[in-house]
Amino acid sequence: MAIPTEASQSGGEINANQTPKLSAVEEIKEKSRQLRGTIRLELLNDTDHFPEHDKQLLKFHGTYQQEDRDARKTRKRDGLGKHHMFMVRCKIPGGTLTARQYLAVDDLAGRYANGTLRFTSRQGIQLHGVLKTDLKETIAGINTCLLTTLGACGDVVRNVMACPAPHNHDGVHAQLQEMATILAAHLAPRSQAYHEIWLNGRLVPDEVAVPDIEPLYGRVYLPRKFKIGLALPEDNCIDVYAQDLGLLAVVENDSIVGYNVLVGGGMGMTHGNHNTFPHLAEPICFVPASAVVSAAEAVIRVFRDHGNRADRKRARIKYLVHDWGVQKFRDVLAGYLAGPLREARPIEVSGFDPHLGWHPQGDAKWYYGISVENGRVKDQSSFRLRSALRHLIERLQPSLRITPLQDILLCDLDAGARPEIEHTLSEFGVRLPDQVSQARRHSMACPAIPTCGLAISESERALPGILDQLEVELKRLGLEQERLSVRMTGCPNGCARPYQSDIGLVGRSGDKYSVFLGGHILGHRLNFLFKDLVPKDEIVPALVPVLEHYVRVRQQGECFGDFCQRLGAERLQALSATSAAQPHREMKPESMLDRSGPVHANGPHGNGRPPLVSAQAPAVQRDNTCHH
Known about the structure:
single chain, 628 residues, alpha+beta, five-stranded antiparallel β-sheet, disordered N terminus
């Protein structure tokens, strides 16, 4: 395919040589009048849901129409139709918000939603269970506190991620946060439809042409969603290789001088469709810090002009990178940037920090990271996390950060705040960070059933019980301090990024799951399928023989994911099959290995992938240990 001319880059139209029939969603966007559709009129109708064309457009406005799947059977028995409700998502660049904003969203959760909040794996906040009659008030309320839902969903740039830690020792983290905010503002949709519908802005009469054509997105926006994240090599807490556009900071003299541009990450796939697959972002080039906005826009324009608009299952930029190859993608991108690309710097990720517990900020203030299992903030029986957070935030008025692991940081605290925080958490039945196991603090799950229409299995409600079982076995084997990443999704779309984790659990059919092994907490390689169609109650028993063998034969400093990669799927499957035929026996590890210190990258990347550095750059010498 020829490099587009300047004229072809400006309008966002489909290339003339693309002949496949466009997907139905493309037609909806084309006729939407820049995302207006008939949403404003449908809000006045006495129904609990929107028609299909508006349902698709609502995503761009930050809300999904959903169904209460828990109520499905009883409603069908009673002769009733579906009970529709809505998820509303706040877009919060870098996860940064004020105490006032958090409390306002918490108020909305109690007034219009199901009384819970959910921190997302992209550092946003979701409200679930909002009824159509309350949808406008909810979105307007979010905007009143100077947050937004615009672009939190839909075929646009989603929430821009950045390491949330308020480390102010050198200013590097502040630079990341600032860049996330700049990118989010620059790449946001420009249509006035959002303000017209939800914020009582000036209406554009239906019979006139729409005046606010999108300068970046054009008339039909992007082929699919687009995700951006910024990371530091020593802390890949945002999973930079899972992003459509990952920006890996290059630091010199305590300042970010530029970024390695990584393109083509994405976790989604479809069971049984081998043309879909998870993919890690590839290093494309290096850009100085002053050019990162224009570089990001150029990558988005490439995707806009060349992405697949016929098959939404293959409409992510990762398939462009895969199908074209890295070199062709570089050549095309160079045409959009009107100049040669610089080689990516020889850096790679080397650490991962969940940022839990009590930490100095470097400015005489402190922050406290609180573990929030699967991001769900709720009060249930003696566990009253929602009340605890509200009490602490009202009392201390901290600034706040949502983390990529769905946790929350209370920031800008005085040194004396720690006793009050820990006393309050304990009083409200919330475990302190040092009381949360390593496996649980590095775990994630998507919401799945009952709210997500794509879910085929449980996830958020299933993972805690699986971890309860796993923790027992890890303690029995002396592995309770092992840093394992366990991630679970109710479908193969990969919202909790399961295909990079040590143990990935993906909904397959009802209570059966695909079990993946061999990823890494650093997120720098994909795992592989270990077992398919495993009943939920058999997941941990299937893992036990692998963990037992790991204890017996692990090499010095070898992480669990590295061990699984070394042995491979067939040997691990044979271990599991042999163990199933033998009675359980007490383990006697051959050696207890050193588990202190930070996590470092090491070992093969798996799945036949080369190291994730520039092909032209010299390889970085790896540390052959993986300490815990």
